[in-house]
Amino acid sequence: MKQSAFILLVEDNNEFREILKESLESSGFHVTAAANANRAREAMNIGKFDLTLLDVRLPDGNGIELMREFRQSDPDMGIIIMTGYAEIDTAVDAVRLGANDFLKKPFDIDELLVRIGELMKNRQLKKDNHSLRAQIHSQHAHDGLSGQCDSIRKLQETIKLLGDSDSTVLISGESGSGKEVLAKALHKSGTRSRKPLVSINCGAIPEELLESELFGHVKGAFTGAIRSRPGRFEIANGGTIFLDEIGDMSPKLQVKLLRVLQERCFEPVGSQQSIEVNVRVIAATHRDLEKEIAGGRFREDLYYRLNVIPLTLAPLRERGEDIILLAEHFIQRFNKDKGAEITSISDDASRAMLNYKWPGNVRELQNLIERVTTLKRQGVLELEDLPSRMISDKDRVLQSFQMDVKTASSIDLKATVDEFESHLILSALQRFDWNKNRAANFLAMNRTTLVEKIKKKGLQPS
């Protein structure tokens, strides 16, 4: 419980007001006491309170009306109504109209402290949840880096720590896990955020063009070089350069990159004149660079120059409930972009999404939600809206059964279950060419039980 909370106490009984004030202050709260509605309004105009303890009967007004005023001016403030026995109905109405709780006089101080503790705890949880949702759904939130799992929280803390650092960072993670998003977050949190972030995918550009892209070229350096052109390092001067898929860079360019990291200078293609740059380097790869070194495909000295601050992005399948949080974020984004109205995700679809392995990681999830908002347009994201690869055999069976229930006028339970069982057994037998051992293992039953059911149902190869 937040013992430093600010409380406004509105009570016209002098003796009772002083007792409450003293008890609350001894428990660590900051208390402002008011004997009537006008004094309470004055206090609200001057300061901001976490909680108001409000008597229903006041000498210059009605506590319920005052509560409405307070709720309108501060929707997030907690309000506990204090009432006499004869006013229980009034207190219940007050809760319906916006009060968080009520206490019937006379009440025990310990009970009051318990109620305050519960209210403040729930208020904090609501505040934390609102903050998290705002982070998830904000246009400025970093897709793929928002979430609650331990690995993402640690990355978020690391980003804060690296805000004033120019150290080279090496990001490892599977394709689509958000490595470029992490690089952008690192750049924006740092002192170079006002300067450019320049990105280049080292695996997407042929070697003969990549050198020019990185370091630039002068006029006449090669066929087609009709004018001089600056490279990405020069463009990024003062800011950050993000070298994605660094593990795909050729050995020749690895040597040139090593020199840039060591000496902070380079020569454009076709030039003998060095250019000095002040650039922070963030590199990323989906490869295991230590294995690449062992295989002779990556320079060990370059690896140690890059791996000053190593960061690892967990694959989406290991991030638990973050999958649903990110899906909700993408739904809101694409609803806005495409004028769609996808309202939520069904429990069945959520379960399938949580059980899916997500080989394409966050990028695959984003593409899925974009497709659903584009094609479905409105309503709830259901199991049938997901690609077949995401739906398990169990979910597929349950889905077909649910469709029967939705469309049938009535159902004979015993006959339907018997038919359903026959269909499953026959499908399993056909799948394994009537190999009863394999079919029994697939259906998680004893072979003898399966044989008995085959005889009883009269099942035969078609």
Descriptive report:
- The protein is built from 19 helices and 16 strands.
- The strands form 5 sheets. The protein has a 5-stranded parallel β-sheet, sandwiched between helices.
- Helix 4 links the parallel strand 6 and strand 7.
- It has 462 residues and is an alpha/beta fold.
- It has 4 domains: 128 residues, Response regulator (Rossmann fold), CATH 3.40.50; 153 residues, P-loop containing nucleotide triphosphate hydrolases (Rossmann fold, 3-Layer(aba) Sandwich), CATH 3.40.50; 76 residues, Helicase, Ruva Protein, domain 3; 45 residues, Arc Repressor Mutant, subunit A (Orthogonal Bundle), CATH 1.10.10.
- The radius of gyration is 33 Å and the shape is flat.
- About 2% of the residues have low confidence.
Shape: flat
CATH class categorisation of the largest domain: Alpha Beta
Please give the radius of gyration in angstroms: 33 Å
Q: What structural class do helix, strand and pairing data support?
A: alpha/beta
CATH architecture call of the largest domain: 3-Layer(aba) Sandwich
Q: How many helical stretches?
A: 19
Total beta strands: 16
* Helix content estimate: 40-55%
Strand content: 5-15%
Query: Termini, distance in Å?
Result: 69 Å
**What is the total number of structural domains?**
4
Oligomer: single chain
CATH superfamily (homologous) name of the largest domain: P-loop containing nucleotide triphosphate hydrolases
Output mean pLDDT: 84
Quote the CATH topology of the largest domain.
Answer: Rossmann fold
Ranges where pLDDT stays below 50 over 5 or more residues in a row are 133-141
Q: What order do the strands of the largest sheet run in, or round the barrel if closed?
A: 2-1-3-6-7
